[in-house]
Amino acid sequence: MKNKLAQFWIVATLLCASGSVAASGSVNLSNCDTSGVTQASGGGLTGSGSCDVTYTDGINTASGTVSASFSGYSASLSGSLTGAFTFFAGSGTKSGTEQGYLWTCTASNTGGVGSTTISGSCSISAGGVAGATSSSGAQQQAQATVVQQVNTISNVIGARMLSNVGGQSSTKQASSGSGMAAGNIAEKWNGWAALGQNNSSYSPSDTTKKRATDVTNAVVGADYQISPTMVLGISAAFDRGTGSVGAGAAGTNSNGLAFAPYLGVQLGPNMALDLSAGFGKGEAGQAGGIKAESDRQFYAANLGYVQWTGNLQFSGKLGYLASSEKYGDIKTNGVTSANTGTKNEIEQMNLGAEVGYWMNGGIMPFLGVVYSKDTRLKTAFNDPDWDKDSFILKLGVNFLSIANKVTGGIAYTEESGRRNAKNATLMGNINFRF
What is the rounded CA–CA span in Å between residue 402 and residue 408? Predict the structure, then answer.
């Protein structure tokens, strides 16, 4: 009897100290075993798993196991713990990956003094954190970040190497998709900056694969003409995005930074080659305190050609890109889920053509089209419905006489040919020779 009175006195003291019954306990999920869970034939997951669970009410602690039953794109948790508990409620969240799906389980406790029941549910979505490791997520994220940096670098090289082709005082390098304008090549140094806004989405009939992102990407760089036929430079790119993923449109966010040295070589009066290699860091996040950090790498080569006929400029480009993004283990509210890291690998070939018209006042509007083919696309969740090739349509204008040694341009690109997918970018730039 004295022990029960003592326990009651402790509980009452805690309640009075808090001023209400709003005090909370804590539920912690850990060491989740999903080895018995497999991919369901209709999508999602099926089977049973379990997680270790610990509950504390601030005074007493007990540990045990809860079972997890997966069915399609949801799962339920159930279990119970016994001990000298109060009736303070608590909750906890745990995330992990299985068969390329991200699962996020939230458990809470109910029950009175002496025992507590642990229950909860799990959400399941395709493609890891923010859908970044699905086929659509990996490809569209690369288009919004790595591809923009590579294209801008390639455009800078073409502007330096091919700006006097055909006797024109200033021209624009083709097939870049970023509208970088050329200028007088007499100066050894060149500084430039570009700012782009990318909007992409994927809306298949399986709504768990849905995703949408808006990414802002800024690229800056500088280069030096080390010989009449060679340019060496360095660039840096910064990206930040927001969006949604899955049937429930869970909020997502991303950010990244990449550095890339580059080299340009003029192969002839009408032809130039550019090479670039980049490395950097990224992070993908999702509602519920879920995030994963990544390491980025890419290598690219582009061969450009320019030919003038009167005031018309005809140009083409053949390009190759290899990109990878390696994600570390998933963290949920700072707690790491072991063995959940994944890696995206993309190899892409591009073939483009463009025509521009030289107008008085240093203005050059242009139209172009690029055929893009993902020759390799490896992700944790490979979606068989994701198309691996597309056409990219381009429309823009270059301003070649903004001020002395200053040029600029703006371009809009839109992808076509991938089912249930949209991808468009608006990018502007400025270029200064010194």
Answer: 7
